[in-house]
Design brief:
By secondary structure, the protein is α+β, with helices and mostly antiparallel strands. About 30% of the residues lie in helices and about 25% in strands. The structure holds adenosine monophosphate.
C-alpha cells in the first residue's frame, strides 16, 4: 500500500512511489506514459476522459476540453464554459488526480489512499488549499502539500544520501556524517509556472533560504508567442485569421508547441498552418524564436536576481545550479543561466520526473516520522503535517497519522531505510508576507505583517493589538497574505473571532494574536483577549479558492492599531 508523490503540473502531471530499496520510481499511467497531460475532456455521453486522448480531442472539440486548470487554481471558476458548464479549477484538478490515483492502483495492484502533492513555491495559501481540496475530492488523503523546487532538491540530495547510506548504513542513534553545505539554486520552469529557490544542502539537511517565482510564467507563454507569430504570418499571406476559429486555433497552438520543441534541438525549422482550406508554410530560426520570447526570459531572469538578493548572496557563492521543468530544455534558458550565474547548469535530474520523485520521498519521510511517533521513539525530525502542528494534534492530523502508520505500509522497506528516512530534514521558508488587517487611528484599513516573506519555518510570532471601541462585543482577526499593505490587494486567507468579549472592556484593550507557521506552510492563528486571560473559542476558516481582493465584511473589522 505505497504512498504516492504527485507532481500536478499545468501541462503534464507525473507520479512516483518509493520502492522497497528506497529508490523513487515513476509510475506509468494507463497509457504506459511517464507523464499524463493535465487535460480533461467531457465527451458527448457525459464521460470524462483525462490525459492523452483528451489532448487529442482538444483539436476537434476545443469547447469540450479544459487545459491548464492549474493556472486558475485559487479562482472560483475556469475562465470559459466547458461543454456549456461553469467548472471550478479544483474540480478539474480533482479529475486529473483521480485518474492518477486509479492508474497507480492498477499499476501497483493495490489501493492508494495517501499522497503528497506538489505546488509551485510561489503558490499562495488559497492556491495551496485549493490543491489539497482537489486531492481530497480525488479520493486521496493528502499527507502534505510541498513546494516543487524543494521536492526537486530533495530528489537530488537523496541520491547522494542513498549512496552514502549504502556505504555506511544509518543506525538508530547514529548521527549522520557532517557534510559541508552546498548552496544550491533550483530553477524550475514548467508548462505554466516558474519557481526559483535557493537552498543550502548539507548531507541530509535541506534548508530553503529564499524563494521567488511567477505563477503565470511557463512554457505555455512561449507557445503563445510562437502561435501569434505563426498566425500573423498566415494572416499576411491569406488575409484570414486562424485565431478566429477555435479548431484552427487549437491546431495552431499544438503546432506552435511542436515547433518550439524542434527549435530546442535544431537551429531552424519549418512550420505549416492550416485554416479554412488554406495552407501557409513558413520557416523560423531559433534566433527569431529567442527574439520573440525575449521578454519572457527576461521576466524569469529578474526573478533570479530577486532571489539572490533576498538570500543576501552573490552568484560567486552559489555552488550548484539545478534545473527542472520541461521548459528548461530550451537552449535560451540554459544560456541565460550560464550567463547570469557563471555556473554550468546541472541538468542531471529528469525534468519531467524529479518533482514527483521528491514528493514520493517526502511521503515516505512523513510515514517514517509518523511510525516513530506511534512507537514513542524520540523525535528525530518533524517533516510533515502531522509532525509539525503546534501543541496537540487536530482530528485531521490524527487521522493522517493513522494512514501513515497503517500496518504494512512500511513493511516492505528494506532494513535500515526507515532509520535513514527519519534523519532527513527539510526546512522551508514562506513565499509571501502574512499579516492581519488592522484599522488605523485615521480609520484606514491596513495590513500589519506578522511573518515577512522568506522567513525560515517553523516560526511563531505574537503581536499585541487593541480593541477599536469601548465595550466592544467581539474581535475578528482577518488573516491576509501578499505583498501589499492594502487589504484588498492581498489574499484573504481566513479569519478567526473571539465572540463574545467580556463586557465593559475599554477601547484599546489588549488582544494577542499569535501566528504559528509550520514547516509545511500551514498556518495556525490564535487570538486571546489578554485583560482577563480567558480566551474565547477561536476557529480559523481557511478558504479554498480564495481570490485576490475578495469582498470582506467591513462591519466585522474590529481590530485596531497595534499596541506598541
Ligand atoms: P512540465 O510542466 O515540467 O512537464 O513542463 C512542460 C513544459 O515543457 C511544456 O510547456 C512543454 O512544451 C515544455 N517542453 C517539453 N519538452 C520541451 C522541449 N524539448 N523544448 C522546449 N520545451 C519543452
Amino acid at each position: 500500500m505505497p504512498l504516492l508523490g504527485i507532481d500536478l503540473g499545468t501541462t503534464f502531471s507525473a507520479m512516483a512511489y518509493l520502492d522497497a530499496n528506497g529508490s523513487p520510481a515513476t509510475i506509468l499511467n494507463a497509457e504506459g506514459e511517464l507523464t499524463t497531460p493535465s487535460v480533461v475532456l467531457f465527451d458527448e455521453d457525459g464521460e470524462v476522459i483525462v490525459g492523452r486522448e483528451a489532448r487529442r480531442a482538444a483539436l476537434a472539440e476545443p469547447g469540450r476540453v479544459a487545459e491548464c486548470a492549474k493556472r486558475h487554481m485559487g479562482d472560483p471558476y475556469y475562465p470559459r464554459l466547458i461543454n456549456g458548464k461553469r467548472l471550478s479549477p479544483i474540480s478539474l484538478s480533482a479529475l486529473i488526480l483521480k485518474k492518477m490515483r486509479q492508474d497507480a492502483e492498477r499499476r501497483l495492484e493495490t489501493s492508494i489512499d495517501g499522497a503528497v502533492i506538489t505546488v509551485p513555491a510561489y503558490f499562495d495559501e488559497g492556491r495551496r488549499q485549493a490543491t489539497a481540496e482537489a486531492g481530497r475530492l480525488a479520493g486521496l488523503k493528502v499527507i502534505d502539500i510541498i513546494n516543487e523546487p524543494t521536492a526537486a532538491a530533495l530528489a537530488y540530495a537523496y541520491r547522494g544520501i542513498l549512496k552514502e547510506n549504502d556505504a555506511k548504513p544509518a543506525q538508530a542513534g547514529n548521527k549522520p556524517a557532517e557534510t559541508p553545505a552546498r548552496t544550491t539554486l533550483v530553477y524550475d520552469l514548467g508548462g505554466g509556472t516558474f519557481d526559483v529557490t535557493m537552498l543550502q544542502i548539507a548531507g541530509r539537511d535541506l534548508r530553503v533560504l529564499a524563494t521567488a517565482g511567477d505563477v503565470r510564467l511557463g512554457g505555455r507563454d512561449w507557445d503563445e508567442r510562437l502561435f501569434n507569430h505563426m498566425a500573423d504570418q498566415f494572416v499576411h499571406a491569406h488575409q484570414d485569421d486562424p485565431r478566429d476559429d477555435p479548431v484552427s486555433s487549437q491546431n495552431l497552438l499544438l503546432a506552435a508547441e511542436e515547433t518550439k520543441k524542434v527549435l530546442s534541438q535544431r537551429k531552424q525549422t519549418t512550420f505549416v498552418v492550416n485554416h479554412a482550406g488554406k495552407t501557409f508554410s513558413g520557416e523560423i530560426t531559433r534566433q527569431q524564436f529567442d527574439a520573440l520570447t525575449e521578454s519572457l526570459l527576461y521576466r524569469s531572469e529578474s526573478r533570479l536576481n530577486r532571489v539572490i538578493k533576498q538570500a543576501e548572496l552573490t552568484w560567486d557563492r552559489i555552488d550548484d545550479v539545478l534545473v527542472v521543468g520541461g521548459s528548461t530544455r530550451m537552449p535560451q534558458v540554459i544560456e541565460m543561466l550560464r550567463r547570469v550565474t557563471g555556473k554550468e547548469p546541472n541538468c542531471t535530474l529528469s525534468p519531467d520526473e524529479a518533482v514527483a520523485h521528491g514528493a514520493a520521498i517526502h511521503a515516505a519521510i512523513c510515514a517514517a516520522a509518523a511510525s516513530a511517533r506511534a512507537a514513542g521513539a524520540p523525535k528525530l525530525q518533524e517533516p510533515g503535517v502531522a509532525a509539525s502542528a503546534p501543541g496537540a494534534q487536530s482530528p485531521e492530523e490524527k487521522e493522517l497519522d493513522l494512514v501513515l502508520t497503517r500496518p504494512g505500509l512500511l513493511a516492505s522497506f528494506k532494513r535500515g531505510l526507515l532509520t535513514l528516512l527519519r534523519t532527513i530534514r527539510t526546512t522551508n521558508v514562506n513565499a509571501y508576507n502574512l499579516g492581519v488587517v488592522v484599522t488605523t487611528a485615521d480609520k484606514q484599513q491596513r495590513v500589519t505583517i506578522l511573518i515577512p516573506s522568506n522567513t525560515q519555518l517553523p516560526v511563531s510570532v505574537k503581536k499585541r493589538f487593541g480593541t477599536a471601541a469601548d465595550n466592544q462585543a467581539a474581535v475578528t482577526v482577518r488573516i491576509v497574505e501578499g505583498e501589499s499593505r492594502v487589504p484588498d490587494e492581498c489574499i484573504a486567507v481566513g479569519a478567526c473571532s473571539i465572540e463574545p468579549l467580556p463586557r465593559g472592556l475599554p477601547r484599546n484593550s489588549p488582544v494577542d494574536v499569535t501566528f504559528t507557521y509550520d514547516n509545511s506552510g500551514r498556518l495556525h492563528v490564535e487570538a486571546i483577549e489578554a485583560t482577563y486571560g480567558n480566551w474565547a473559542s477561536v476557529a480559523i476558516q481557511r478558504q479554498a479558492g480564495a481570490t485576490r481582493g475578495a469582498p470582506v465584511n467591513e462591519d466585522a473589522e474590529v481590530v485596531a492599531t497595534p499596541v506598541s
